[in-house]
């Protein structure tokens, strides 16, 4: 069984990781855990005229690792093996695409990510995910 946990660094995402850790014992076999962070594409328009691709990639990697840090620490403390990946794009689409590429059996995610103005401007990643994927999605409050 493969379980994908999208992580954006928010408390809600960490609650999803905590849920997986606390409930992993009910599964018949140890699942393969996949953490995913999606970075918004900042290299649009003329940005590439002023900043080279290596610098942009370093930025994505640094921001992604920062967002994954707490989730990775939780899984390490629980002695659970996992893989992580950083994607670039629109979160809902990137999560659905990665879930399909990895043939995950379930997506476990917080019911909302980093809120505030970002949620108002960008809409709900969860709502978009539910429309984009045919895979089971477990929302953690």
Summarize the model shown.
The chain has 141 residues and is α/β, with parallel strands linked by helices.
Tell me the name of the CATH homologous superfamily. HUPs
Largest sheet entry: 5 strands, parallel
- SS strand fraction: 15-25%
- Rg calculated over all Cα atoms: 15 Å
Structural class: alpha/beta
- Number of DSSP-assigned strands: 5
Name given to the CATH architecture: 3-Layer(aba) Sandwich
The spatial strand order of the largest sheet comes to: 3-2-1-4-5
End-to-end CA span: 23 Å
Q: Quickly name the level 1 CATH class.
A: Alpha Beta
C-alpha geometry: globular
Summarize the structure in words.
- Helix content is 48%, strand content 21%.
- Strands 3-2-1-4-5 form a 5-stranded parallel sheet, with helices on both faces.
- The protein has 141 residues and is an alpha/beta fold.
- The chain has a single domain, classed as Rossmann fold (3-Layer(aba) Sandwich).
- It has 6 helices and 5 strands, in the order βαβααβαβααβ.
- The protein has helices spanning 11-23, 47-50, 53-77, 91-101, 117-122, 125-132, and strands spanning 2-6, 32-39, 82-88, 106-110, 137-140.
Structure characteristics:
alpha/beta, Rossmann fold, five-stranded parallel sheet
Indicate the topology.
Layout: E1 2-6, H1 11-23, E2 32-39, H2 47-50, H3 53-77, E3 82-88, H4 91-101, E4 106-110, H5 117-122, H6 125-132, E5 137-140
Parallel strand pairs: 1-2, 1-4, 2-3, 4-5
């Amino acid at each position: 069984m493969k379980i994908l946990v999208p992580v954006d660094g928010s408390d809600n995402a960490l609650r999803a990781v905590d849920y997986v850790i606390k409930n992993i014992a009910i599964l018949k076999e140890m699942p393969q855990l996949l953490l995913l962070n999606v970075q918004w594409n900042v290299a649009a328009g003329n940005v590439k005229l002023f900043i080279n691709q290596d610098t942009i990639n370093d930025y994505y990697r640094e921001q992604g690792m920062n967002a994954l840090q707490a989730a990775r620490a939780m899984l390490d403390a629980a002695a659970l093996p996992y893989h992580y990946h950083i994607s670039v794009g629109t979160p809902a689409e990137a999560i659905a695409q990665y879930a399909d590429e990895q043939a995950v059996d379930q997506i476990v995610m917080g019911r909302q990510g980093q809120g505030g103005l970002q949620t108002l401007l960008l809409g709900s990643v969860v709502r978009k995910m539910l429309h984009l994927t045919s895979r089971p999605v477990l929302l953690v409050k």
